[in-house]
Structure formats: structure tokens, C-alpha cells
Amino acid sequence: MRIHHHVSIILFVAIAGAIGLALAVGLLLGGLERAAQETGRVSEQYHQVRMLLTDGQELLETINTLTSDSAQDSFVIMNHAIERSVLGLARFHHSSLLVEAQPVEQALDALETMTEQSRKLVLSRASGLPLVDELERLRANAAMYMTRLDQVETAAGLAIGKQDQVLVQRRKLIMLIIGLICVVYLAAMERVRHWTTRRLILPVQKLASAAMKAMEGEESFPRLEQGTTEELNTLARVLSSFVETLKSRVRERTAQVERQKEHLEREVAVRRQAEEQLRHAAFHDKLTGLCNRDLLLDRLERCIERARRNDDYKFSVLFLDVDRFKEVNDSLGHFVGDQLLVAIADRLQRCLRSSDTLARVESNTIARIGGDEFVVLLDGIKARSDASVVAQRIQEVLAEPFHLNGHEVFTSASIGIAFNEIECDKADHLLRDADTAMYHAKAAGKARHEVFNKQMHAEAMSRLELGNDLRRAVENQELGIAYQPIICLKTGRLTGFEGLARWEHPQRGIISPVKFIAHAEETGLIVQLGEWVLQQACQQLRAWQEQLPRDRSLSVSVNVSKRQVAEPGFVEVVQQVLNSTGIDGRDLKLEITETVIMENPDSIAEVLRRLKELGVEIHMDDFGTGYSSLSYLHRFPLDVLKIDRAFVGTMSANDDYADVVHTVVSLAHTLNMQVTVEGVETLDQLVKLMAVGCDYGQGYYFAEPMDAEAAKKIISSEPQWLKSAA
Ligand code: C2E
Ligand code: CA
Ligand code: CA
């Protein structure tokens, strides 16, 4: 059945029930109305009886008052009164429906008798006949009449009572019937409700809850009971297949999501790994795998923060610089240099791991923060001496030879130690302090450690000031040049001068180039400074050549730092100086050190070749202090080897060195190079050097560096320097 059939049935039952109820109530009310009318008539008749009684009473009294002597008129009046009563009673009798007829008829009989008697009385009175008996009979009849009337009244009273009873009963009946109809109607409606609930509402609820459960994951969708409407059956079928579709879609989606999740997880893992690698790369040194500067600073900050909160906490920073690393790098190549750094890192790690003096071994940090600079952060030491013990141990492990790529390499380290005790609240300051201490260890002879103190800081500050002052001095051209004669050892004559930078500081007095040149190299100021010296020296040479013409040539030697040579326009600068001063390229000698060549051999070869094209001579300065072999250096266009003064110094004490110098000189000569010795201080040295065939000499024995004025005098006096030697 369809829903609208259900609705029609419900409506029909409701409307039919309501109409039936209304009809029944109407009918019953009509009956009640009729009963009430009946009751009204009965009570009206009772009222008439009461009036007849009153009239009868009066009549009886009238009759009783009549005597034989009473006037004729009184009899006539009485006669009329009787006739009125007859009329009244007859009307009553005629209209009476309810009262018993018998007493009324008896009363009427009594009245008719009285009428007869009264007429006779009137006639008798008129004819003067005796009246007494007649009157007596009339009175008896009147009494009879009253008795009958009383009976009528009683009957009327009974009728009223009966009628009232009927009315009450009818009312009760009506109430009963209405009540019954209501009950039936309610029962019918209840049936309808029950039916509707069972057929419509319950199935809908069941469908709803089944749908909910299906959504929550219940497996099967229930079937509806038989007898539900077609629409609900359809709805159930649709819902069931809808739920099935939904479930299969959910399954599909879940599988899809699962797959995506797996994919995402894989991606996240890959990304995490990449991030991890990136993070590692960001905070670690590529070559050694140690922490880098950033990570070190971060850990240092944490240590400082911790020390701030905890007075008992101590930590220490060891700044380590590999001694003579450059030389290894330059002589054995970058590959071996890198291997050495890795090996050092490895030894540092092992050394720290096995260090039993340290409580918190795992939290120590080893970092590489520059080419050959390492930093060890000792996190949580018990006493200051711990740091020195560790430094000592590091030096011991580094003293063992390294075997790298077939070479046996010896190295050492200079270590600076700083503690967090000295009011230091910044990581880079602490690092700077350790660096300063390291610098002192280096200056004090390398392969040792120094603990930072305030004095060092003051010195570092003064170095910093020196740097600023130097910049100003270079910019304002406050520097000067000293000239040291170079003598030809074959002729004993002056061949030229080496120009040496000089700086007379307004407060500090004369500052050695050993100090300020190194600083200028660090800051890059050397490029400007070197250019100035070159320009100045060439200018001076030109002036001397013009002022003091001589038959043999006069040259000037200028020191060139590696940073200058690395500068892209260096050759152009030299050419420009030659052009502007007008000196011959052959009169300019540029002194470079081994490290200049070793740093970047290929590009330097090109620079040297181009300088040679200008006619400029290239002199190898400080020869003998580096690692490079003469046969290697021969590949470069070098004209002169300048044997380092350290050699000459030791030569006088040890004859072996004289042999070495001899070998070097012979080799140089076979390789088409000449030899200059510097640092010649004594005649003895000079004699030995001349004996082994050195070509040129320079040193205090001949003359100390001097100003241009003094140099000029020497040029003009043309001294013979080898008189004593000869
Ligand atoms: P250098 O090039 O080896 O210069 C020779 C140094 O030895 C000079 O020191 C000179 O005064 C000193 N000397 C000369 N004869 C003797 C001697 O008989 N005994 C001793 N003990 N020393 C002697 P100076 O002038 O102090 O220069 C030191 C270094 O500074 C130079 O060493 C050079 O490397 C560098 N330098 C000086 N001027 C310049 C410059 O203009 N440019 C560059 N790049 N470096 C310069
Ligand atoms: Ca030099
Ligand atoms: Ca030198």
C-alpha cells in the first residue's frame, strides 16, 4: 500500500468518527429537548390543578356559607361558580395527557351532579321550597369534588415526579452514550496511531538508525518487515544500495588515502633525510666531518648561558693551529694537505674520547673553523689544569708521524686556551681570546700551548690599533722606504738596492715590517702598500739614475707579497709603474717567496712569464726555508735564488751548512740561476760564501738598510766592498 492510501484511511476514520459523534450528540440532544418540553407541560397542568383547587376551595366555602335564607343571587353566583369549575376542569381534562384520567372524570361527575343540584336549588329558592336537604346533599357533593380534586393534584404531582425522573435518566443516558462514542472514537484513533506508527514511523526510524549504524561501520543493512508501504520499501532498497555504494567508496578512498599516506611517509622520510643531511652540512665541515664554526659558536653560547646560571660550571676552549701546515700543503700538494687535516681530526677525536680527565666526554666539541684551525670545546671541566692536560695530550698524539700518500709527515700544533672565567659573555670573544693565546704560543716557538690572560688581550687590542693606524699610514702615505745595498761578489761593486718598507709610528716609534707586513697581508692592505713601495722605489731609482749616471747599471729589488701576485691586474700595475717612472724593466727585480709559487703554481707561472716579457727579473726570496726542491722551482722563470739569512747565520757555526750552500749554488748555476746571499754579517761568512761561488751578497757586513739620502752617497762614492775579503 502507498502512503497516500494510509493518509486517506486516517483522514476517513477521523472525519467519519467526528461526523458520527456530532450526529449522535445531535439526536440525543433532540430527545432531551423533547423530554424537557414534556416536563414543562406537566408542570403547567399541575399549576392548573392548583388553580382548580383554589377555585374549589372558594366554591366549597361559598356552598358552606349558603343557608336556606341566603339570597337568590347567592345561589345564582354559586351556580355560576360551579359552572366555571366545570369549564376549568373540562379544559384540564381535555388537555391532560399525563395525569390519570379516572380521578378527573370522577371530579367532573361530582361537579356535574353539583351543577344539577345547584340548578334545582336556584329553582327551589325561587319557588320557596325547603332547601335544607338539598343544601346538605350539595355540600356533601362539594366535599366529594374536593376530594377528587385532591386526588387529581396527587396524580399531577406524581406525573411531575415521573417526568423529572425521565429527564434525569435521559441526561444520564446521553452522557453515557457521548462517553461511549468518545471512547470508541479515541480507541479508533489509537488504532490509527498504532497502525501509522507500525507501518510508517517505525520503519522510517528503523531506516534512519540503520543508515546511522551503516555509517558507523555496521556490516549489513536490515530488511524492512512485510507490510510497510511501497515508498518505504523503495526508500529502504535505495538506502541499502546507497549505503553499499558509500561503503565501497569509503573502502576505495581509504585504500587511496592509505596509499597516499605511505607515499607521503616515504616522501617525509626522504625529505627528513635530506634535511638531516642539509642540517649536517650546514653545521659540519665537509672535509673532516667535524663541527663547523657556526655549530661551535652555538655550543659555546650554550656553555656561556649555563655558566651564567651555574657558578660551579666551568668550560674551556682550546684553539689549535697546525704548525707549518702551509709548508706541507705547498710542498706536498693540497691532496696530502687535506689528508693531513683529516688525520689530525681523527687523532683529536680519539685523543678526546680516551681522555679520562674529562667528566662529560660525549658533550665535548671538536670543530674545524678554518684551513688548519681546530677548536676543542671542553664542556664541564673540573679544574683549569684539565685543559692543559688535554692540550699536552693533543700535542703528544700530533707529534707521532703521519703516513700520507707515501710521505712521512711530521707536524705539531700551537694551542691557545681560554676559560669562561674571564668576564666573557660572547662566544666569538671567547674564541678570539683562545686565538690570541694560540698566537702567543706560535710566537713563543710553536708546538706548545698558552693560556689566555688579560695581558694578551691588551696586546691583541694594540695589534688591532696598529692595524687601524697602518691603514691610515698607507692611505696618507706616511710610510717610508729603506734601501739596503746589494753587492756583486765578483767585482765588489754595488749592483743595486733592496727597498724595504719602513713605518715610523707617531707614538710607537719605528715598527718592524715583520710586524706590519704580516698584518697588512692578513687584511689585504698589502696590495695598496706594495703598489706604493713599487712606485716609490722605481721613482727613486729613476732619480738616482738621472742624478748620478754611472757606467754599470743600478737596480732596485722590491718584495712582492703573494696577495699582490694573485691580484688580477698585477702585471699591468708593474707595467704602468715602469712606464710612468721610465725605468728599464731589467733594472727592476721582484722578490717572491716559495709560498707565492706553491699556492697556485699554474696561474703564477703565467704571471711570471708575462713579467719576464717586461724584462723584469724574478728573485726567489728566503730560499731554503720551504719544502720545495730546486728542480721543481726550475720550472718557473726564476733568475736569482736568495739564500735565506738563517742559513748564513748557522753557516759560520757549522761547516755542514757551507756544504749545503755550496750544493745549492752549484745546482743553481747549472740551472742557469744566480745566487744572492742575505744576512751577511761577518767577514768570515763573506769569505765562505765567496768561496762557494755566491754571486751577490747583502747584509749588515756591507750596510744596513738606509734612507735614500744615505744610499745616494754610497752610489756616488762607489766603494769597493771586497777589499778586506780579498
Ligand atoms: P726580507 O725580504 O728577507 O728582507 C731582508 C730583511 O733582512 C730586512 O728586514 C733587513 O733589514 C734584514 N737584514 C738585512 N741584512 C741583515 C743582516 O745582516 N742580518 C740580519 N739579521 N738581518 C738583516 P726588514 O727590513 O725588517 O724586513 C723584514 C721583512 O719584511 C722582509 O724580509 C720582507 O719579507 C718584509 N718586507 C719588508 N718590506 C716589504 C715590502 O715592501 N713588501 C713586502 N711584501 N714585504 C716587505
Ligand atoms: Ca726580500
Ligand atoms: Ca729574505
Describe this structure in words.
By secondary structure, the protein is of the alpha/beta class. The chain folds into three domains: 3-219 and 226-269; 293-452, Alpha-Beta Plaits, CATH 3.30.70; 465-715, EAL domain (TIM Barrel). Helix content is 64%, strand content 13%. The chain has 22 helices and 16 strands. The protein has helices spanning 3-65, 72-95, 101-127, 132-216, 230-283, 293-309, 325-332, 334-353, 384-399, 427-443, 454-475, 513-523, 526-547, 562-566, 570-581, 594-599, 601-613, 630-633, 645-651, 655-670, 683-691, 708-717; strands at residues 315-322, 365-370, 373-379, 402-404, 407-409, 413-419, 449-451, 480-488, 494-505, 509-511, 555-559, 588-593, 617-623, 640-643, 674-678, 696-698. The strands form three sheets. The protein has an eight-stranded mixed barrel with strand order 8-9-11-12-13-14-15-16, surrounded by five helices. A hairpin with a 3-residue loop joins strand 9 (494-505) and strand 10 (509-511). Helix 8 (334-353) packs across helix 9 (384-399). The longest helix has 85 residues, at 132-216. The chain is rod-shaped. The two termini are 146 Å apart. The mean pLDDT is 88. One calcium ion (CA) binds at residues 621-622, 642, 644, 678. Residues 621-622, 642, 644, 678 line the site of one calcium ion.
